[in-house]
Specification:
- By secondary structure, this protein is mainly α.
- The protein folds into two domains: about 160 residues, Up-down Bundle (Ferritin), CATH 1.20.1260; about 150 residues, no CATH class.
- Helices cover about 75% and strands about 0% of the residues.
- The protein contains eleven helices and no strands.
- The longest helix has about 35 residues.
- It is elongated and about 90 Å long.
- About 35% of the residues are buried.
Length: about 325
């Protein structure tokens, strides 16, 4: 009853005939083949070995589709009933290709594994819910076919992307992540956290007014974010350097710059000056240690050296702002 209320345009699986079940399987195999080919196109330029794996997996799906069509033709004739997974309530769904763009290599691999697992589980559960012997046999055969797909995927992966090739692709993916997101974001976080310390704390101690300090910090953080974002996006289109999309880098840099300043600005929404200032100082210290951690994890900078550079430098800027504000 509830399923009909919230999904009035969808049918329950129990209401499908054997002909519709077979047509549904044909359409599903066709959709999955197209998804694998889309993955292959996305990966071909940077990860040719993995692209070949998905091309072969698409060919396997197409082979199963042809077999299903032949069975359908023998049992029900030439005209295949139009029914898709989105027409059936509870049937696993696939995202359209435009929602799969810009996925990481690991995410694509994980999605492919999930696709096969979902298909297998659906057919197993469907077989349990039907009483007709021939329909149950059909669903069981489909479940076994989907379970076999994961074995085929593993075999193809070993053939086209052995461990050393996969390791190289993983390193390349991590390097691209660092160049496109981590490096610009880290530069923005450092600039936003460190460069805004002096004006914010100078304004705080000069005015003793938390609201005015908040306005100074907000304007400095947002302004720095906009400036850093446009600068990052404009100075390198990424084609020669390989650093990736300038728009992505600009957004990463701009957003992290603004967040770096807003972290120790937001406490000044607290009316009490010393409470707000104490919290702001603690957050500023946490920001500086976070920067040192990111440098160590992604940029392979020794932690002690990163901590010395960032924390000492930030501490000097913080001290300068307090001295200037008290001057």
């Amino acid at each position: 009853m509830l399923a009909r209320l919230f999904h009035p345009s969808k049918r329950s699986f129990d209401s499908l005939s054997e002909q519709e079940i077979l047509a549904l399987a044909i359409g599903s195999e066709e959709d999955d083949a197209r998804i694998y080919l889309a993955y292959a196109d996305m990966l071909r330029a940077d990860y040719p070995a993995s692209a070949k794996v998905f091309e072969d997996m698409a060919e396997v799906e197409s082979t199963h589709r042809k077999s299903l069509i032949e069975i359908y033709r023998q049992r029900f004739g030439e005209r295949i009933t139009l029914i898709r997974r989105e027409h059936v309530h509870g049937f696993y769904e696939r995202k359209p290709n435009w929602l799969r763009r810009n996925l990481s290599l690991d995410r694509i691999r994980a999605d492919a594994e999930a696709m096969e697992e979902q298909a297998y589980r659906f057919y197993v559960e469907a077989a349990r819910r039907v009483s007709d012997a021939s329909t149950r046999q059909l669903l069981g055969d489909l479940a076994l076919a989907e379970q076999g797909h994961s074995d085929i995927a593993h075999m193809l992966g070993e053939k086209h992307a052995p461990a050393e090739v996969k390791g190289d692709e993983d390193k390349a993916a991590r390097r691209q992540l660092v160049l496109t997101y981590v490096q610009p974001g880290l530069a923005g976080l450092m600039d936003g956290s460190v460069s805004t310390l002096a004006p914010i704390f100078a304004a705080a101690f000069a005015t003793q007014d938390t609201w005015q300090t908040f306005l100074v910090g907000m304007s400095a953080s947002v302004g720095a974010g906009i400036s850093m974002g446009f600068t990052e996006a404009a100075h390198d289109d990424g084609k020669i350097s390989g650093r990736g999309s300038p728009i992505k880098r600009g957004i990463a840099c701009g957003v992290m710059t603004a967040l770096g300043g807003l972290g120790h600005t937001l406490p000044y929404l607290i009316p009490n000056f010393w409470t707000a200032t104490t919290l702001a100082v603690l957050i500023a210290i946490l920001e500086l240690w976070t920067i040192a951690f990111i440098q160590n994890k992604y940029m392979e900078t020794p932690f002690l050296r990163a901590a010395f550079q960032v924390v000492l430098g930030g501490g000097l800027v913080l001290g300068a702002g307090i001295l200037i504000g008290n001057g």
